[in-house]
Amino acid sequence: MSLPPPVHQTGRFILFAVMIAAGISPARASGLAERLRCEYRTNPLGIDVPAPRLSWIMVSTDSSQRGARQAAYRVLVASSAETLAENRGDLWDSGRIPSDQSNQLGYVGKPLKSSQQVFWKVRIWDEHGEASPWSAPASWTMGILSDADWHAEWISAREAMAESQPFAGIHLAGRPLPPPFASAHPPIYPTMLLRREVNVKPRLQRAVVHLCGLGQYELTINGQRVGEDMLAPGWTKYDKTVLYDTYEVTPLLKAGNNALGVLLGNGMYNVRGGRYAKFIGSFGAPKAIGQLRLEYADGTVDVVSTDGKWRVHPGPITVSCVYGGEDFDARLVPKGWDRPGFAEGEWAQAVVVSGPGGKLRGLSCAAPALRGFESLKPVRITPLHTGAAIYDMGQNVSLMPRIQLRGPAGAVVRITPAELLNADGTLDRRSSGGGEAYWQYTLDGTGKEEWVPRFFYHGSRYLLVACTAPAGKELPVVESLEGVVTHSSSEAAGEFSSSNELFNRIHALVRWAQVSNMMSVLTDCPHRERLGWLEQYHLNGPSLRYEFDLAALYAKGMNDMADSQTSDGLVPDIAPEYIQFDGGFRDSPEWGSAFLLSAWQQYEWTGDVELLRRHYGAMQRYVAYLGSRSRNFIVSYGLGDWYDLGPKPPGVAQLTPVALTATAFYYEDAVVLTRIARLLGYADDAAKHEALAQKIGEAFNHEFYDSATHQYAQGSQCANSMPLAMGIVSPADRAAVLNAVVQDVARHGNALTAGDVGYRYLLRALAEGGRSDVIYAMNNQSDRPGYGYQLERGATSLTEAWDAEPDSSQNHFMLGHIVEWFYHDLAGIGMDTSLPAFKKIIIKPATPGDLAWVKASYESLYGRIESGWNINKGSFTLTATIPPNSTGIVYVPAKAGAEVTEGGRPAGQALGVKFLRWEDGAAVYEVSSGRYSFFVSRSN
Predict the structure, then answer these.
(1) What's the CA gap between 925 and 917, in Å, rounded?
(2) How many angstroms separate the CA atoms of 458 and 417, rounded?
(3) Is 938 helix (H, G, I), strand (E, B) or coil?
């Protein structure tokens, strides 16, 4: 699968050329600064915090070098590329700072202004005091820093405002629209076009746009699309936060007359149904706000903003529904509407309106943009009848079709997506929610036509393409059809493979589901719901983070949770909360606890303290809310271990009491809140939260632990594993409880029973208890419900139910916890959480079953970590790469006293290696940065 590749050191050769040109010997400069980022992003546009955080990685110039570390840094930030090239930081020159910090360094230079572009670079000193050359330059562009800097007004169309009044969400789940929402008359403004002509003076130096179009938009300048982003802006709770995007558009403008064009669709902002819909609800009519800043060489600045001078017109997209689909009528496109000189006499004047109520925010609350990636070609085309065929794309994934076709004006091509087929070869849309959802294109008859939808994607493998034509006309001909894989542009961060081909297939199965649901929120599925169900954020957090750089997406998710929190402290199960569900589907502690647990994971993986500081008060309110719902420290409501394998169809927990999982998360929340309070320096709060955690743990053991059987509740895999993994079990009982878990797995024929909530803890309890052999046996099979079982039944992405039953979603990443085990345990890539962001790396691989080799890598904020091992004729080799400016602890599996070598010499005598102890069947070494190869011969 072609996904965004892991970040590699792309600037290396450029830097070597810079060094040589500057007379610096690459041999003397042992470290280089690369991968410069601002607020987790490369050359970002739209930074809306006054003191952005900067980061870089240190890269060794010699791959054989060990012990490379940063001893000092110097950062230059300049107002122009020319000033920076002169090695002057007129905005900030940090000077030489003795420090190894290369992550989350806050900007402390001159105050920055809205829309300002700044340029920066860094040089570092290594452990020998040798200075590196300056890094390649990087930049960031500021967004709007204060409301006073917005010179624009929200605009819309008068008729649209009348026909699209806001209303609260109504749960439909595919049912027909209730009155008065069911109307026989289509809206005048199903979508909207906006345009404005702008005169640009000569000697334009720079042009930047800040724009929000609700629900989704596409911007053009002089007929040319701006950027590659799709479904912008990201989905939010629009009455709390509204996102705008920033673009550098200088090359698209010319001296003289220019045309700005905006196409508006509906997205999650305005869900009015009409076909299949999970819910309907609206924040109001489509509308836009934006401003174009024009900077000239003479220092003058013009700002062109949205106001009553813009013109509006109904768009050619006649249906735009995030659930039901998108219809495009090419005959309705006003030719040249977004180019200069268009006759706009029949277009109405825009009206100035109020916004949806949310604060306009830039990248501080935004996820990485959605983009189109690889294009899938059909692997099979099966005709059904005249004008209709099923296209099998070979892979279930979130996609948009790209079609090339020809035919008469008024002819129609309808493309209906599905994940499954019926026995007779027709579409089976049960797993996608049932009901109608499709793309539809009406031809204008001008010859060869090409179309890609703007605002609707759908998870699918199969596409039913049906062609119709006006009476007496020939059917249109589809000359080609591709599926454009659509998902977040969050960069890939991990790679994993092993000698077990089933595990490799499982890895791919989960990864396809992950990318299909990485949108501007982490959705549950890419079709029937598309909602941000929160349990996935923390339960799948490590599995997702090993695969992708999700720091920005998770920061956005935390803002969604905060925006959705109620006044009494409840964090609902979905965020943004577009629809209020009932009971446990709105309020389940296993879901709401993501507010704390995801933020703490973010800190561990990135060192992000500001996210904790920003939301600390809201986190306290959530824990207090759980306390208000508890009785004697027991919380007894929620969904529990959702989709566990019990005697009934999957759903609410069957094998584990809901009170057990809910109370376990109440405990875990109190533990994490204690850690956060200590980190932020709130000692009194920490003591209070720690005391609460202790009381919850004691109540939990009193309520659920049976000392006679050494089991919790009924002894399910979930019930015993959660207290083990969370540290609730007393040390004296841990071995017995772990044994109960092992016995339960064996009793079920080495099969799992835990569900969405419990399975991660089952994996963690077994792995941390040294029983990865049980995990291996559980997952190295295909005849009982699980990953292999799904693959055996033809799944190409992870399904919602362990048995891949067709009524459940066939593209759901919620059960994908095994990826964490692949990286953390089989490859052994972990961290010492006391030094976040993999500053101190732990390599501790497990070697269960008949695995012959495993290799994996992860792009941390300090650089690329690698771990790989193989067993050849009984001898064991472990290779590990620790990036510069970090250290590691390496566990080499071996019998106590065995001879372990590194690079052909006793490991304890090797450069950069220090023997520590024998532990858990391994020789433990402390290592500095560098690449290592440990060997244990069969004779040992």
Answers:
(1) 7
(2) 7
(3) coil
